[in-house]
Amino acid sequence: xxxxxxxxxxxxxxxxxxxxxxxxxxxxxxxxxxxxxxxxxxxxxxxxxxxxxxxxxxxxxxxxxxxxxxxxxxxxxxxxxxxxxxxxxxxxxxxxxxxxxxxxxxxxxxxxxxxxxxxxxxxxxxxxxxxxxxxxxxxxxxxxxxxxxxxxxxxxxxxxxxxxxxxxxxxxxxxxxxxxxxxxxxxxxxxxxxxxxxxxxxxxxxxxxxxxxxxxxxxxxxxxxxxxxxxxxxxxxxxxxxxxxxxxxxxxxxxxxxxxxxxxxxxxxxxxxxxxxxxxxxxxxxxxxxxxxxxxxxxxxxxxxxxxxxxxxxxxxxxxxxxxxxxxxxxxxxxxxxxxxxxxxxxxxxxxxxxxxxxxxxxxxxxxxxxxxxxxxxxxxxxxxxxxxxxxxxxxxxxxxxxxxxxxxxxxxxxxxxxxxxxxxxxxxxxxxxxxxxxxxxxxxxx
Length: 447
Ligand SMILES: Cc1ncc(COP(=O)(O)O)c(C=O)c1O
Description:
2 domains, 16 helices, 17 strands, binds pyridoxal-5'-phosphate
């Protein structure tokens, strides 16, 4: 989580919070942070500490008071990110149905992927041991760049050792102080951080709202502007309203950058993401994606015109000054790409599961917000209730992610569930039964 200048941001940009007046001001008063549910990460950005290495005492006190709530975070998996896995819960091995994973197509655990990685490990050893610019690139890296470019019908592609670093490096590598980054207000933090690093001006538009985008672009007429959207929004699970937003961007002659982190390989008839899903590939010059979601691995990429990629190879600092992905990971991604492009039935299963699960949830009157994809918020809207239910769900063997403010607005506090191609109907029905026994009665009681 991160925050700056009175704007708290996490998975998404710009949930401005109202500065509170009831935060304990002194160290002695900090002892009185008794009820952790009354506070959030939005409250401790600025503290009384005079030493930057010392966090605000109020924060430390709040963390102690909220240890039970916080124990839902950073869970330890004791097995693969499969649909049924084992986690450490309360110091014990605990079997769960996993609705927490980005392993959308099940590729992280495919035997062919594991075999390809094992072979590369033997041949290349563990690390790349160098920046791609100087010494970290193998023939496998170049092959993956070519394959990604070919897959997306682009002139070239380049790889980053993390998705976050890829977005950060690309945006900060392209934008300059006099430019404007125009972001959807639900965009991922990596995108905003890229614009901040570039010291470019930041304009935000209301989520998926063409009129708001039009107004944002009009405010900075005459400047170089980059409209930044996501294929599928990672907290809300809805698509960008791509064609309508593109129309507005085009009317202002603004360039568009799309983050396909959650959509790449998992949607579009051939897996080429939201741009393909909406038939908009020809209208978007630069495509960014991650290998940490449907590819089941790690890393990021950007694909587009070779002159742009060539420029970024020198000006994206997270590329030039950071070690290349280990060859073992590249080999796994190459195999995952091969499987993901040759087995469209994986995407069919993913989408069937997503529609089924959401329909069943909505049938139980669970609010899934604007989700139309395999990412679904189960909106609870109350912090204390969400943490209480979170523990009950874990105890009952359902693994979903708690999502608190400021990652989402207060009224959107939720669990995030992700379904995958590998979930069976039995897995999903068992999960739904647990939800019916736990969340549904609570929501009815507070309706
Ligand atoms: C929309 C979006 N972009 C970028 C990233 C960063 O990707 P990675 O986790 O591969 O670093 C994420 C991570 O979840 C994301 O959701």
